Amino acid sequence: MLLFRYSLELCSRCRLLPRQIRLIHQSAYLLARGIRRRPVEHSEEPASPFTKLDKNLSIDNDHSNQMSVQEQFARLELQRLEQESQKTVDQSSSSFVVEDNLDEEELENDENKQTRPFIDPSTTSIIIFPGQGTQFVGMGQQAINHPNVKEMFNIAHRILGYDLYSKCINGPIEELNQTLYAQPAIYVTSLAAVQKLKAENQKAVENCVVAAGFSVGEVTALVFAGCMTFEDGLRLIKTRAEAMQSASNEVNSGMMSVFVGRETKLTLAIDAAREWCNKYMKIDVPCIQIANHLYAECKVLAGHKEALQFIAHNYKVFGIRRIKYLPVSGAFHTPLMASAKLKLIKALDKIEMQPPLIQVMSNVTGKRHSNDVASIKRSLSQQLTKSVLWEQSIHKMYQRSKQNTYPNTFECGPGRQLGYLLRLNNNKAYQQYHHVDV
């Protein structure tokens, strides 16, 4: 009888042993997980001139616990958003309606094709103007001795209230990098480059059929196209720069380049970052969006710093290949520039504009501006809070059949960033690219 009881007790203990072993393994796993630090991976900086690292925003290992929570949230949010996205696709596919509406611009182009004589594209030119971030100490000195350039800097001195040429030549770079000074400097030196190009290759200016500019460069392009005077353009730039600097000081925000591939779920990453900021950072209306479309594999995000940090901590979860902060103080081309937009609208109301003499591309639509002055003013104000569709503009400007040649492209202004983007978007068009140094 005793032997029987002993056998039963031994059997019951044997049955408990595997459960105890499992509990020991589970405890060890949880302990290891609690003390494990997730390593921070720093990607090598690519060759792109748009991807300078903001060292003040580097990821701190001391926040490993918070990052662990963020990563768990990111993965769960990605799963939820993918499920919702699939439901939306299923619903839309069940009620698909084919629309056969042609774009008004395409209709206009079809009509013009019947009336316009053929012009060899290789005899024409496109002039493009850079945006903020291209400034450097010494800009302007290679163009100063060309006709009208000194007078342009003298006018700038009177309108701005300080010696812009001295600021361009002597810096310091810390001041020249500020939005307040960078935008007027880029505007004036870009138009100074046009004067240099006119002196060296007058046909390139006379045969220009399209002008385009990145961000502040769009104003430069409109002035070049005769839409407004040099003085009015500079006054508009002055107001724009001051307003954007002020808006940047109102909220902790920034910009970040993200390098993507086919596997990247960038839209879901943006949605998850907004959800994180709303739930955990207590930001009522979190802002993060694509501010610049540069080329297929690179976009620029802008918005609240907290949202950008969420992306930086979890970029691999969403298939983003690399990220780099940009050395700017504000979230340009997002709704966080709303206060600057209002000030710009008031400045635009005071400026008299004329329809442009040549085609000028719009950052907001990625297509050419119409001849309606009110529409141009509206687009310039919207540009501060909407994405810059530069990639789309390039595709529109250089769209042609395979047998057609490409026009000569001249980048007028500091830096070669737009040429770099042209090469990545259309390498054939880039073969006819030239830079007018200042």
From TrEMBL:
One of its GO terms (molecular function) is [acyl-carrier-protein] S-malonyltransferase activity. Pathway: Lipid metabolism; fatty acid biosynthesis. Its EC number is 2.3.1.39. Belongs to the type II malonyltransferase family. Keywords: Coiled coil, Fatty acid biosynthesis, Fatty acid metabolism, Lipid biosynthesis, Lipid metabolism, Mitochondrion, Transferase, Transit peptide. Residues 128-435 form the Malonyl-CoA:ACP transacylase (MAT) domain. It comes from Rotaria socialis. The keyword Lipid metabolism applies. One of its GO terms (biological process) is fatty acid biosynthetic process. Residues 52-61 have a biased composition (Basic and acidic residues). It is found in: Mitochondrion. It is an enzyme of class 2 (transferase). Residues 64-91 form a coiled coil. This is [acyl-carrier-protein] S-malonyltransferase. InterPro entries: Ac_transferase_dom_sf, Acyl_transferase_dom, Acyl_Trfase/lysoPLipase, Malonyl_transacylase_ACP-bd, Mitochondrial_malonyltrans. One of its GO terms (cellular component) is mitochondrion. Residues 40-61 are annotated as: Disordered.
